[in-house]
Write a structure and sequence with these properties.
- Strand 3 and strand 4 form a beta hairpin.
- The N and C termini lie far apart (144 Å).
- With 1375 residues, the protein is mostly helical.
- The protein is built from 59 helices and 4 strands.
- The longest helix is centred in the N-terminal third of the chain and has 42 residues.
- The N terminus is likely disordered.
- It has a 4-stranded mixed β-sheet with strand order 1-2-4-3.
- Keywords: Repeat.
- This is Smr domain-containing protein.
- InterPro entries: PPR_rpt, Smr_dom, Smr_dom_sf, TPR-like_helical_dom_sf.
Length: 1375
């Protein structure tokens, strides 16, 4: 028997290509035994074969073929003249019988191979016994013997199949050789036309059987030999003129193109490489069908069957791009001999695209530059899907005519849409499932293809996975209306069935639309009574699908309120199911129904679910009746028992988890579970699983008493603990904070009784008593990992180190998951230590330990956090391929502990990984690593801003902007090709902001920030407005005013985005004029997140006494935002101006700020009525007062009173003769200005025509009301009165003497003589100032002062003017 092809030496393959064998067995047929003389015969050059004319590319692709037709020229010279040299082809009946015998023999062997490959009943029973019994009923040696025997039989059948196929190949080659060796007049041989049809059919059957058999044995070389021998024989038949009467054209052809399709399909099922599959296709298209001679062997031109086979073969090898290119080349772009595609072609193409959607990136090599370039450069991101498979499918759909599509093709197309929705639902850019589905339906309507129920089910499943409940309900209603419509229309939607209803219900359940869910169940019940043809009764599995959807969404949600809604919806569905089950047996709840609800129960979730109102305002019965989880759980379990529903291990596990905060209820449920599960086949494993659920609840609570009770219950039934139980006990000890107990437990597991006694004495936990006798468990790394992480959570580093040393002694190393947990714990400890260190720094700052140069700077001392971050970095080196989450945690920990260099290196590592992922993807939206980085960037910059670390902040900013630049360059590279002359220059932020150029020219620098706002805001990969704000805060606390000057232009686009005139934010509703105006609420919310940036900048300018930049920053901010700056910023600017004695600029700044339109500035007011305007006036007056600018303070106070923002001090009462001032609620500075302004205003009112040189007469006493201290911190100890008395004495000249008013302790009296003396002094000072101003003006007008100023200078121009002045004086003296 001929052996396998792969077992032969290399030289034998060449002989096999000719159809000859080096060795033969006795069982081989006689005509399969050529002699040595045959092998030595010369080769005639009469004809050339198709394979010999094959191009070099095809021969290289198929190296096992040298010249498949060389054997045709062999002359049988060793045969004598009596032997018959005639081929069987000249006797068609004999030839058909021969090919039929080959076909039946190969078919029989194929059936035998299938029977040998199927496992027998006995072997199945043995396998069951091995899996179900612990001891086993069949030894390993016996099972190996059975396996070896089966493999031997299979090999024997495979060899027989290979031998049969080789016999068939040799027969065809022998026939071709004999035909070419005939010397008889061929024209004399005539056959009938129907004999060619018979020969063609018999050959087709034989070829298909042989090719499929070769595929089943995995011999791809044998498949190629079959195809080549078929072509050689058909070519010999055509060339040597077996022409029936009247035959012409391709009527002599014997080969159907289907043979090549079968060969390609069979090659794809073997281990043949893609190059070999492509070689077969090229041989078929170029060398057989494309050649004028060899094309005559084909009955017809290539069809869609062969094209579909090749596309499927490439798709099975993952070559999606090659498959699409092949289709476009031969079915779309071909000018001649185009292959007409069919619906199956579309199904194959759409199916392979759907199967390729396994991740957001998928087969990244498929998309070309043109497509992605249009997405990135033309701004069509909103129209195109982030899923390239869907975009490619839409383009392919346009290449098919309506007659080439059907429901199956559209179902495959919609399957792509479904998978795209499921894959991109959590991505930054989501796939539009609803518009894509509607597009497909519209196209079907244009093509007049009515969708069937399968197509509509795929659409409904898309809505379910995308959680589009409105679209699902609308489609369901449309299907019902279309099926009931009486209009005669070819295109209509099918009648919804039970699966359609189930998907719609599941969609609404995921979206918490309980009222719609219940109404759909009612519609199903009504439809069941009216429709007898289609069964749409709400069966149990339909209810369970809705409950499963609620449970799945419940567990994926992180909001308590959302979880409460899911629980309320599930509870309503269960009660609806129970009500329907009483009427219809098909709707009775089963164990899965109750398990789904039990899995969602939680103490806090129950309280949230009780507040949810369902349809009609009613709540679920169990939610309204019970207050505790245990009551709801008991009711559900009792209902299951009363209805005869078996409560399994999942039921009790979920019930215990629902009662995790109630230890007594957990013990009760555990006893119930033990009693009910005793009689099961897997009683011990089920009881142990429920026990572990109870231990898991105890571990979450840290309740060691519950652990002891659970272990006692476990010992009563004779079930022993496993490694999961031990890990849970360790976590319970760690939760309770007893790390010494963890160490005692590990020692106890070595068989030490004293450690077991310690645990028994402390908590009543008997570890050794719950382990198998004389069999201690072998501790694995997971137990040690749980112990180490529990110790680290309690900051017990010494015990954790002791456990690690024990692992080293036992040569046990932590797994990657364990190392991950250890690193995460070190990072958590480092960040907690950092928070404590910052608290200590704040306390020290409050106690007066402040850096005088940088008063806002916090200087924590990193000790503990530093050491723990170093430990995290050391352990991280042992982690292979750490996840992004782990790297992010280490980066945060290093930043929190002041390890800026290490944190930056980790961040750069993540950036490099993100850039590599981006370059492999087709668009930045598909790069999930980049999408997660902005949060990490902001977290690190917060730490820099917290401590005023401006240098690390700028270094991080450089790295972030470099990443953003790489993203932009990648997007450009995917679009139009860049001009080779343009060069991208990278300018670091630190080099710009720390240089002196920043204060000279506040412009965005080229190459870094010269980017318009839409691009920055549209792609927030780099620094966003919030990040620039943090940079400003860090610069403020570090005292780097130049950085503030340079950073403000970078935040400008984000501030302008909040301006109503420049914003792109629009409201959803139209105004009265029908125009969409900016949503002021949204803009104000965005502005509130950025307004602290200007405050930080102005505060920094105040510290550094940069009053000019403070004013410039305020003015720019007003222009950018269209709003008033924050009050802290304006007040800081007023303080720095007052310190530089620029009172007039303070007045101008206050006037500029308060004249802003209040349409976009809601006047904020606290409980005490301290408005924005009042705060500005009060703090500005205080600043001016502290700098001694009393006149400016008086002017500002008068303006505040005039505008109504400050209360006037004068009490106008005709019955009172004295001037009375009420200073309640005023600060000392405001009170000072109020007294001065009130006296001067009263004097102006009484004596309007007084001259500046005359003395002022004042006859009224001044009464100042300060209060008796009823609202002071200490009752009847006034604060304002002594402060006013000090002010009148120290800050007025000449001093104003005051005395307590008789009978009123809350008022002061100033005599009229003192007031008159003060007024006269003020009048005199005013006159002197006017004289000084007049003298200065005279000096300026005469020019003498200007010349003297010029003479004092040393410049060249000034020296020239000086010489000119001297010459003029000498000339005057001479005259």
């Amino acid at each position: 028997m001929v052996g396998r092809r792969r077992a032969r030496p290399s030289w034998t393959s060449s002989l096999l290509a000719y159809g000859m064998f080096a060795t033969q067995t006795s069982s081989t047929s006689a005509f399969l035994q050529p002699t040595t003389q045959q092998l030595q015969c010369p080769l005639p050059m009469q004809t050339t074969s198709a394979a010999s004319r094959a191009p070099a590319s095809m021969l290289v692709a198929s190296p096992f073929i040298t010249s498949p037709l060389k054997h045709r020229g062999i002359k049988y010279s060793h045969l004598n003249e009596h032997e018959d040299m005639s081929p069987l082809t000249i006797t068609p009946s004999d030839f058909v019988k021969k090919t039929a015998s080959f076909s039946s023999n190969i078919s029989r062997l194929r059936v035998k191979k299938k029977r040998v490959g199927l496992p027998s009943v006995e072997s199945k029973n043995h396998e069951f016994d091995l899996n179900s019994s612990h001891e086993g009923t069949l030894t390993t040696a016996a099972s190996d013997a059975v396996s070896i025997n089966s493999k031997a039989q299979e090999k024997q059948v495979d060899d027989a199949i290979i031998s049969a196929c080789n016999s068939f190949i040799y027969f065809l080659n022998d026939e071709a050789t004999k035909i070419s060796a005939l010397t008889v007049a061929i024209e004399a041989i005539k056959t009938e036309r129907n004999t060619i049809e018979t020969t063609r059919e018999s050959l087709e059957v034989a070829f298909v059987q042989a090719i499929r058999a070769a595929s089943e044995v995995g011999d791809f070389i044998l498949i190629s030999k079959i195809v080549y021998s078929a072509v050689d024989y058909a070519l010999a038949f055509v060339n040597f003129g077996f022409k029936p009467n009247g035959a012409s054209g391709n009527e002599l052809a014997l080969l159907q193109p289907r043979i090549f399709g079968e060969a390609i399909t069979s090659l794809a099922k073997t281990k043949a490489s893609v190059s070999k599959i492509k070689g077969m296709w090229n041989y078929f298209i170029k060398d057989v069908e494309g050649d004028q001679v060899t094309s005559s062997v084909l009955v017809s031109s290539p069809s869609a069957y062969e094209l579909n086979a090749m596309i499927s073969a490439l798709a099975s090898r993952g070559k999606i791009r090659a498959a699409i290119k092949l289709y476009k080349t031969f079915a779309v772009e071909a000018s001649s001999k185009r292959i007409e595609a069919d619906a199956y072609t579309a199904s194959v193409l759409f199916g392979m695209l759907a199967d390729d959607i396994s991740s957001p990136t998928g087969d990244r090599s498929v998309i070309g530059n043109d497509q992605t370039g249009e997405e990135s450069t033309n701004g069509d991101d909103k129209e195109k899907s982030p899923c390239w498979q869907w975009n490619e499918a839409v383009e392919l759909l346009d290449t098919f005519a309506p007659h080439q599509l059907n429901n199956i093709a559209y179902a495959k197309l919609l399957k792509i849409n479904e998978k795209a929705v499921e894959t991109y639902i959590k991505q930054p850019v989501k796939h539009g499932g609803v518009p894509s589905a509607m597009m497909a339906l519209d196209r079907m309507k244009q093509d007049d293809i009515s969708p069937d129920i399968v197509t509509c089910s795929v659409i409904m499943s898309t809505f379910d996975k995308g959680r589009h409940w409105r679209a699902a309900v609308s489609l369901l209603d449309t299907m019902k209306l279309s099926s009931r419509s009486t209009k005669s229309s070819k295109w209509r939607l099918p009648t919804p069935n039970i699966y359609t209803y189930a998907l719609a219900i599941s969609t609404c359940a995921r979206c918490d639309k309980s009222d719609i869910v219940l109404s759909l169940f009612d519609q199903m019940s009504i439809s069941q009574k009216t429709n007898t043809d289609i069964s749409i009764a709400p069966y149990t599995w339909v209810y369970n699908a809705a409950l499963s959807a609620c449970a799945e969404t419940f567990h994926s949600s992180t909001s308590r309120s959302n979880r409460g809604v899911h629980l309320a919806t599930a509870m309503a569905i269960l009660e609806k199911m129970e009500a329907d089950g009483a009427k219809n047996k098909n709707s009775v709840p089963d164990v899965h129904s109750y398990n789904s609800v039990l899995a969602m129960l939680g103490q806090r979730i129950l309280s949230d679910a009780k507040e949810i109102k369902l349809r009609g305002g009613d709540k679920a019965r169990r939610l309204s009746e019970y207050e505790r989880n245990s009551d709801v759980v008991s009711d559900l379990l009792e209902t299951m028992a009363s209805n005869g529903i078996r409560r399994d291990v999942t039921t009790y596990s979920n019930a215990i988890s629902a009662c995790f905060a109630q230890p007594q209820e957990i013990k009760t449920l555990l006893r119930m579970a033990v009693d009910e599960l005793k009689g099961n086949e897997k009683a011990k494993s089920d009881i142990l699983e429920v026990t572990n659920s109870a231990l898991r609840a105890a571990a979450s609570l840290g309740d060691l008493v519950l652990v002891s009770s659970v272990l006692w219950i476990l010992s009563d039934v004779g079930v022993k603990m496993d490694m999961v139980s031990i890990r849970l006990i360790i976590r319970a000890l760690g939760k309770s904070g007893d790390c010494e107990g963890i160490l005692a437990l590990l020692i106890c597991l070595r068989g030490q009784d004293f450690a077991n006694d310690i645990l028994k004495d402390r908590y009543g936990i008997n570890i050794l008593g719950n382990l198998p006798e004389k069999l201690l468990p072998v501790l694995d790394e997971r137990v040690y990992s749980a112990a180490i992480t529990s110790c680290l959570k309690n900051d017990e580093l010494a015990i954790a180190d002791q456990i690690l040393q024990s692992m080293k002694v036992k040569e046990i190393s932590l797994t990657q998951s364990s190392l991950h947990d250890v690193v995460m714990e070190y990072c958590r400890m480092a960040m907690e230590s950092s928070r404590e260190e910052y608290k200590i720094a704040r306390i020290a700052k409050r106690n007066g330990h402040v850096n005088p140069e940088f008063p806002e700077l916090l200087e924590p001392i990193y000790i503990t956090s530093h050491a723990r971050s170093k430990a995290a970095l050391a352990v991280l080196k042992a982690v292979n391929e750490p996840s992004r989450k782990l790297l992010s945690a280490v980066t945060k920990a290093c930043a929190a502990s002041g390890l800026w260099q290490e944190s930056r290196s980790m961040l750069r590592r993540m950036h490099r990984a993100a850039i590599q992922e981006l370059r492999k993807s087709t668009s930045p939206a598909q790069a999930t690593a980049i999408a997660e980085l902005p949060k990490l960037h902001r977290y690190i910059l917060k730490f820099c801003a917290k401590g005023g670390y401006i240098i690390p902040a700028l270094n991080y900013a450089d790295d972030i902007q470099y990443l953003a630049q790489q993203v932009r360059l990648h997007r450009k590279s995917l679009g139009a090709k860049q001009n080779s002359s343009t060069k991208s220059t990278t300018v670091s932020i630190s080099s710009i902001l720390l240089s002196d150029k920043a204060k000279k020219k506040r412009e965005q620098q080229p190459g870094l920030a010269k980017v318009d706002a839409p691009q920055i805001l549209g792609h927030p990969i780099g620094l966003t407005g919030l990040d620039w704000k943090l940079l400003l805060i860090a610069a403020w606390r570090g005292g780097h005013w130049k950085v503030c000057v340079g950073t403000l232009p970078f935040i400008q686009p984000y501030v302008k985005e909040t301006h109503p005139k420049h914003s792109r934010e629009w409201s959803k509703e139209l105004d009265e004029t029908g125009i969409r105006k900016p949503s002021l609420k949204t803009l104000d919310r965005k502005y509130s997140k950025l307004e602290s940036a200007i405050t930080a900048a102005v505060l920094c300018f105040e510290v550094r006494s940069q009053y000019a930049w403070a004013i410039r920053a305020i003015e720019d901010w007003i222009e950018w935002s269209g709003r008033r700056p924050p009050r802290q910023a304006v007040i800081a600017a007023c303080r720095v101006l007052a310190k530089r004695y620029r009172g007039t600029e303070v007045l101008n700044l206050v006037s500029r700020v308060l004249c802003m339109n209040e349409a976009t500035n809601a006047t904020t007011e606290d409980a005490s009525g301290y408005t924005y305007e009042k705060a500005i006036y009060v703090e500005s007056i205080t600043a001016l007062h502290q700098s001694g600018l009393y006149d400016d303070a008086d002017h500002l106070y008068a303006n505040g009173v005039r505008q109504g923002h400050l209360l006037p001090a004068v009490i106008h009462d005709a019955s009172i003769q004295e001037l009375t001032l009420d200073l309640h609620g005023m600060s000392a500075a405001v009170a000072h200005a109020a007294v001065r302004v009130s006296i001067q205003q009263e004097m102006s009112r009484l004596q309007p025509s007084i001259k500046s040189t005359s003395d002022i007469t004042w006859s009224k006493n001044l009464i100042i009301i300060t209060g008796r201290g009823l609202r002071s911190g200490q009752k009847f100890k006034p604060v304002l009165r002594p402060e006013v008395q000090r002010m009148l004495t120290e800050e007025f000249f000449p001093p104003l003497g005051s005395s307590t008013m008789p009978g009123n302790l809350g008022a002061l009296t100033v005599q009229s003589e003192d007031v008159a003396a003060w007024l006269n002094h003020q009048q005199l000072q005013k006159g002197e100032r006017l004289l000084m101003v007049a003298d200065a003006l005279r000096g300026i007008s005469s020019g003498a002062r200007l010349e003297r100023a010029i003479m004092s200078s040393g410049s060249r121009l000034e020296k020239a003017l000086r010489r000119k002045l001297q010459e003029s004086q000498e000339k005057g003296n001479a005259e």
